[in-house]
Structures are given as structure tokens and as C-alpha cells.
Design a protein that fits this description.
Blueprint lengths: L3 E7 L7 H14 L4 E7 L11 H4 L3 E2 L5 E2 L1 H10 L8 E3 H13 L10 H19 L4 E6 L9 H13 L4 E8 L12 H12 L6 E6 L5 H11 L6 E5 L7 H7 L2 H8 L10 H11 L3 E7 L8 H7 L1 H12 L3 E7 L2 H6 L12 E4 L8 H13 L4 E4 L1 H13 L7 E2 L9 E5 L1 H8 L8 E9 L4 H12 L10 E3 L2 E10 L1 E3 L4 H6 L2 E7 L4 E7 L5 E4 L14 H12 L1
Parallel strand pairs: 1-6, 1-7, 2-5, 2-6, 7-8, 8-9, 10-11, 10-12, 12-13, 13-22, 14-15
Antiparallel strand pairs: 3-4, 15-19, 16-18, 16-20, 17-18, 20-21, 21-22
Helix pairs in contact: 1-3, 1-9, 4-5, 5-6, 13-20, 15-16, 18-20
Bound molecules: glutamine.
Length: 560
């Protein structure tokens, strides 16, 4: 079969759910039996997303092969239930970097190297390479930003060149926003018409317009878009606001979007099968018993909206685990700086069923997080620490149980008497050389679980409890030998010098990386769920396959 490509671009404005739309389209096509992959092309000059603050750009997602990328890659993994690899993510910075590198190596054989055609050619090379490596029948390519921006122009040029070369193998979807101004109460198509005209000026014509709006579009609007944007009326696809993003593939299928796009790509129509998705979407909407989970983050400078974006994989993991247990997750954002100022306010934690302390960097709010860990340990509130959350739980345990006064991570206090969390040796060299980009311990590494521990039980029993097999548990060998593989993003680790002493005080080392003897999971005994992971399990949770640790955490939280 010839490989096909679908480009998804944004008209009018950003943040209308282009990534989720692209991923949902992929879900439909996958359910029709095609092998589908997705690519994100971001227009910024950063080589990857690793150096960006999450409040700027949302969560930094990590692929199994260790690329720090845009959160949309997380959407693709969740919707397509595949592992997206490094070739599926590119930025303008990355593209220029390889063209310049090649130029320095004389690979252009003395030619003048120019923005056009060499940059679009490199973009096309990357797209085709990713499609080939993923053995994809259909590759969805999302272009970051919006039509009309100066900085994503060369990506559009790449689409034009591909479409010229193989017109029947390339489809173009414009995700647009149609406002319904409150003083008129009518949906307006003019901004979309203008975006469409701008797209035409690039030599491109959209095959479909995905109409993001507060409500479905009516026939009158469809006709207008057809006339002014040169599309068939039925190719204006309605995409109204939804309560749960997992409704989107189902809504698209109601409009037969999948077969319409196959038609444009000169492929035969196929039945789709979204029955599992329909089950999930139903569970997501059902009002059932509430499970209240506190999230102790810090990247929420402009209200809960940014927080949600900064911790999207954590939030989605909680939802997946809760829905499949017929629970309605209620998330509560915890401001840990408040606890530092007034420890009495910590008592608000007693109203929660469980607390997650997600990943993080630097000192802001850390003492407050340590207080949260202590409160959860002492009051037997289920606690789930992810990366920094695991390190924080270790520090708290060292200080308050092992009586190591002033114990800390050297990230915060390089001179601490008890560096129970310390920088990894190779990381020290990198930081001394100021090599910050893409230098953390990144991607998937093995972790051998300790029989009898909470996490061991969670990973080994999930197949029985959950609708599907565990994410990250593909290496299950035998009852007594479980090796899992999970994703990482950190520079610091539990200091092995203190391991014995911590264990003597009752800390359970529940998982260790066999190659480097690094502690991967800590737990405490006689507690419903007190687990900290050096890795990020949230990157492995899928809507139809909740992650074993999140599943168990939510179960214990709802039981407590
Ligand atoms: N700052 C910690 C480290 O670098 C934790 C990182 C994280 O939570 N992702 O080790």
C-alpha cells in the first residue's frame, strides 16, 4: 500500500484543540484497521521542548526513546495507543540544526544552501522517515501554530511540495474556530474565510474544515464555508465543545469523517469499530462516586488552566484509572507555598481521598511538599509521588523517621549534612559544562520490582482488575521476577550511601534499576498506599489501558 499523509493545520487562532483533533482522526482510522502514526512539527527555534518552562508551553512529554517533546505527542500516544518515537517530533530549531550540520559536512557539494528548498526538503525527509519507521499506512502531521504566522511558513511550503508531487496521497485539514459573539448570538464564518484565503496564498487548498465552535454548525454555515472556502459542504466537519475529549472520535465518526478522508486519499471506505471508546466516553460522563485527588504542583501561574496543561498526563492518568472503576475523579490543586506560611492549613488534606506530588524542579514550594508527604504518611492518606514527589517523600522520611535533621536533595541544598537525594555522577559533569539541553536521564529504563511490595502487587494483578493489560508491564516474566520499563526525566537520584539506613528505619526499596543499581521505587509499610517512583508512570497510561500504579492508587484512595 502507498503511504498516505494527512496534514492538520490551524486557522484563526491557537488552542482550539488541533492536537486532540489530529489524534481523534487517528483513532478513527486505526479502528478501521490501518496502521497510523502521528507527527508534531513545532515552529519554534528550541531544538526540543526540554528547556521550556511548563507554564510557557505546557507539559514536557517524554518518549520511550528519550525525546523531550510537546504535550501533543502525549495525546497521540493516548489516542492511538502506540509509542511515538523520536523521529515523530521536529521543531524549526531541529530542522535547521540538521541542515546546517549537513552543510558543514559538505553534503550539499558546494551548492548555495537556502531556506527554500532545503528547509522544506529536510522537513519532508523527516516526515517520510518517520512514516517508514512506524510502517504507517497513514501518517498524520500536525503543524504547530496558526496559518498566517511568519515562523511556520516553511512547513506549509513542505506540504505544498508534497501535494504537488503526489496529490492523491496528501490530504489537508484546517482546524478553524468559529466564534459565536454573545451580542449577536450567531456563528460567524468570516475569520475562517480569511484563514482559508491565506492558505490559498500559500498555494494550498484545504480538503476539510474542522469547525471548532461552542455549538455544532448548521447547514447555512456549511453552505457559506463551501462557497467561500472552496470545499464540499459535507467536508465542513462539525466539532462543537465537548465535556470529555474522548467524545471527539465518536463525534467525528457521526459525520463519517474517516471515510470522507479515505475518499480524498483515493482509498476504499472501511467500517470503524469504536465500541471500547464508546464505553470509555460513557464512563467519563457518568456521575458516579467521587474520588477527590489533590495535586501538589507549582506550575500554575495563571490559574488552574495552566496547571491542567502543565500536568496533563498526570491528570489524564487519574481520569483513566478512576473511570474504569466507575468513579468520578475530582481534582483539587494544592498550593504548597501556603502550607509553608501556615502549617495549620495542611488540615485541608484530610478532606482528600489521595494526593499526587508530580514532577518538578527547583526550590519553590518544596518545603510545603515535604509537609504534604509527612501529613499523608502520618494520616494514612494515599500518597503517590512521581519523580520529584518520590524524592520529596524520601527527604521527609529521612528527616522525620530516621531523624536525619536537615536531610535534603543537593538540588536544593548542596551543603546538606544528609544528601539523601544526590545528583547522578554523569549529570554533575554535564551541569559543570553547562550542557543543559537533552542531557537528563531520559526515556525508558528497566526496573526490577521487589516481591510483596505495593507496586509489585499492582503490576502483577492489574491484568485481572483492569480492562486491558498493563501499560509498561510488557516485560512480566514470572510471579517472582517482574521487570518493568518506564520513562524517566531527572538528574538526581536516591543516594545509595543512605539506602541501608533508610531501609533500617522502614523505607521499602520496591524497585531498582538493574544496570546502574538506582532506586526506582520507594514505599512505606502499614499504609494503604504510599508509593514514590523515580520514573514517570503518567506517560504510560492509556484511556483504554489505565496504568497499574494509578489504578491501584485510585482504588486505595476510594477505599480509604
Ligand atoms: N528535579 C528532580 C531531578 O532532576 C526531579 C525531576 C522531575 O520531577 N522530573 O531529579
Amino acid at each position: 500500500m502507498k503511504r498516505k499523509f494527512i496534514f492538520v493545520v490551524g486557522g484563526v487562532m491557537s488552542s482550539v484543540g488541533k492536537g486532540v483533533a489530529a489524534a481523534s482522526l487517528g483513532t478513527i482510522l486505526k479502528s478501521k484497521g490501518f496502521s497510523v502514526t502521528a507527527i508534531k512539527a513545532d515552529p519554534y527555534l528550541n531544538v526540543d521542548a526540554g528547556t521550556m518552562n511548563p507554564t510557557e508551553h505546557g507539559e514536557v512529554f517524554v518518549t520511550v526513546d528519550g525525546v523531550e517533546c510537546d504535550q501533543d505527542i502525549g495525546n497521540y500516544e493516548r489516542f492511538l495507543d502506540v509509542e511515538i518515537l523520536r523521529d515523530n517530533y521536529m521543531t524549526t530549531g531541529r530542522v535547521y540544526e540538521s541542515v546546517i550540520h549537513r552543510e558543514r559536512n559538505l553534503e550539499y557539494e558546494g551548492k548555495c544552501v537556502e531556506a527554500v528548498p532545503h528547509i522544506p526538503e529536510e522537513i519532508i525527509r523527516r516526515i517520510k522517515l518517520a512514516a517508514r519507521k512506524a510502517k504507517a499506512d497513514i501518517t498524520i502531521v500536525e503543524i504547530g501554530g496558526t496559518i498566517g504566522e511568519y515562523q511556520n511558513m516553511l512547513f506549509f511550503e513542505a506540504i505544498r511540495m508534497m501535494k504537488m508531487e503526489t496529490p492523491n496521497d496528501v490530504a489537508l485539514v484546517m482546524v478553524s474556530f468559529l466564534p459565536v459573539p454573545s451580542h449577536i448570538g450567531e456563528m460567524k464564518t468570516k475569520p475562517t474565510q480569511n484563514a482559508s484565503r491565506e492558505l490559498n496564498s500559500y498555494g494550498l487548498q484545504a480538503d476539510f474544515i474542522l469547525c471548532r465552535a461552542s455549538e455544532p454548525i448548521d447547514d447555512k454555515r456549511r453552505e457559506k464555508l463551501a462557497v467561500f472556502c472552496n470545499i464540499k459542504p459535507e467536508n465542513a466537519i462539525s466539532a462543537p465543545d465537548v465535556k470529555s475529549i474522548y467524545d471527539i472520535p465518536i463525534n467525528f465518526e457521526k459525520e463519517n469523517f474517516g471515510n470522507k478522508i479515505l475518499n480524498v486519499l483515493k482509498m476504499r471506505s472501511r467500517e470503524s469499530n469504536l465500541s471500547e471508546w464508546k464505553k470509555l466516553a460513557k464512563l467519563a460522563k457518568e456521575e458516579s462516586k467521587e474520588v477527590k485527588i489533590g495535586v501538589a504542583g507549582k506550575y500554575f501561574s495563571t490559574g488552574s488552566y495552566v496547571l491542567a496543561d502543565s500536568y496533563i498526563s498526570v491528570i489524564e492518568s487519574i481520569k483513566h484509572a478512576a473511570w474504569w472503576q466507575n468513579l468520578t475523579p475530582k481534582l483539587v490543586w494544592l498550593d504548597t507555598e501556603k502550607y509553608e506560611k501556615d502549617a495549620k492549613t495542611l488540615s485541608e488534606l484530610s478532606k482528600l481521598d489521595g494526593v499526587v506530588v508530580p514532577g518538578g524542579f527547583g526550590s519553590r514550594g518544596v518545603e510545603g511538599k515535604i509537609l504534604v508527604a509527612q501529613y499523608c504518611r502520618e494520616h494514612k492518606i494515599p500518597y503517590f509521588g512521581l519523580c520529584y514527589g518520590m524524592q520529596i517523600a524520601t527527604i521527609e522520611f529521612a528527616r522525620n523517621v530516621c531523624k536525619m535533621k536537615g536531610a535534603n536533595t543537593t538540588e536544593i541544598d548542596p551543603k546538606t549534612k544528609y544528601p539523601v537525594i544526590d545528583i547522578m555522577k554523569d549529570q554533575k559533569t554535564k551541569l559543570a559544562r553547562k550542557e543543559y539541553g537533552n542531557t537528563m536521564r531520559l526515556g525508558s529504563y528497566d526496573c526490577k520490582l521487589t516481591p510483596g511490595a505495593i507496586s509489585y502487587m499492582a503490576y502483577s494483578s492489574l491484568t485481572a482488575n483492569s480492562p486491558a493489560s498493563p501499560a509498561g508491564g510488557s516485560k512480566l516474566k514470572a510471579e517472582d521476577d517482574i521487570v518493568i520499563s518506564e520513562r524517566h526525566r531527572h538528574r538526581y537520584e536516591l543516594n545509595n550511601k543512605y539506602r541501608r539506613e533508610l531501609e533500617k528505619c522502614g523505607l521499602v526499596i520496591a524497585g531498582v534499576n538493574p544496570e546502574r543499581n538506582l532506586v526506582e521505587i520507594i514505599e512505606i509499610k502499614n499504609h494503604p498506599f504510599f508509593v514514590g517512583t523515580q520514573f514517570h508512570p503518567e506517560f504510560g497510561s492509556r484511556p483504554l489501558r489505565p496504568h497499574p500504579l494509578f489504578y491501584d492508587f485510585i482504588q486505595k484512595a476510594s477505599d480509604s
